[in-house]
Amino acid sequence: MADAIQALRQALGEAGSIVALTGAGISAESGIPTFRGQGGLWRNFSPEKLATPEAFAGNPRLVWEWYDWRRGIISQAQPNAGHRALAELERRVGGEDGERNFTLVTQNVDGLHDRAGSRNIVKLHGDIWEVRCLGCGATARNEQVPLDPLPPRCNCGGLLRPGVVWFGESLPELAWGRACRASGAAQVLLVIGTSATVYPAAGLAQIAQGEGAKLAIINPEPTPLDGLADWVLRQPSGEILPRLL
Ligand code: OAD
Question: With CB atoms 3.0 to 4.6 Å apart as the test, which of 126, 176, 194, 224 could cross-link to 171 if both were Cys?
Fold first, then answer.
């Protein structure tokens, strides 16, 4: 393990372009439940009833109750050492435009990367603190916890929905384009705290590797990408990421 960390640290030091792809696991040490695996949300809740456009059309109140509950948990959580290490890595390497660059592509909607100080963030699955009006299409930030009324309404009277991507929906085009470009240009891709089972996000690993990037997986459990990886670090991200700096 120490050798792998040393080798990855060196690769990060030499890389002109670095991308980190994160998933729910990076926020696990902040006390936010993941989706799959032990204690995962999809063990106790059904995605079809809570995270699809059809579910929302059928019962907006139920869907909002679930998001309101998650917003409550997230509002009590703090960024952990893993989030902070990625923000520090960005500060050292530089953001989007420098000679070296670092892009953080996240599937998470919790906003903990923002709060930890990361700046060049691509949010593939939206943001739980954003709302979008089904009537007029306006988007807004909404940090009210708990929400009142439920479901929340826009000033125009229209129903607001969470600003997240649901099953069956496309990823935001701009975000996906940025993620693909950054991954295609990366020399090192860190895949952190994701089961790598949800596409197209997980496909960024193949895109990066196809263009020559080295691939590191940071996850206490095996993932389907492990066989492709140059380094597999099977430990919590809050422990490994600070050691890479
Ligand atoms: P998952 O819940 O599928 O996977 C979480 C991963 O984190 C698992 O592989 C765990 O082993 C790992 N993990 C747990 N604790 C960890 C720790 N301390 N450090 C590092 N890794 C840890 O979450 P995602 O891969 O993010 O989509 O799921 C992808 C998407 O599926 C989510 O964005 C969400 C979900 O349905 C939407 O809501 C659209």
Answer: 176
The parent domain of residue 71 ranges over 33-76+128-164
Based on the fold, state whether residues 237 and 137 are members of the same structural domain: no
- Per-residue pLDDT of 86-100, as tens digits, reads 999 999 998 676 789
Distance 44 CA to ligand 1 centre (A): 15
- For residue 154, the tally of other CB atoms under 10 A from its CB is 18
Q: What is the tens place of the pLDDT at every residue in 124-146?
A: 999 999 999 999 999 999 999 99
The reply to whether 113 belongs to the active site is no
Q: Which of 107, 197, 235 to mutate for ligand 1's pocket (most ligand atoms within 8 Å of CB)?
A: 107
CB 179 within 8 A of CB 152: no
Q: CA-based angle 149:154:160, to the nearest 5?
A: 75
Q: Pick the catalytic residue: 71, 113, 123, 125? A: 125
Bridge partners of 202, per DSSP, are none
Read off the pLDDT of residues 4-18 as tens digits, 9 standing for 90 and up: 999 999 999 999 999
Structural domain total, the chain: 2
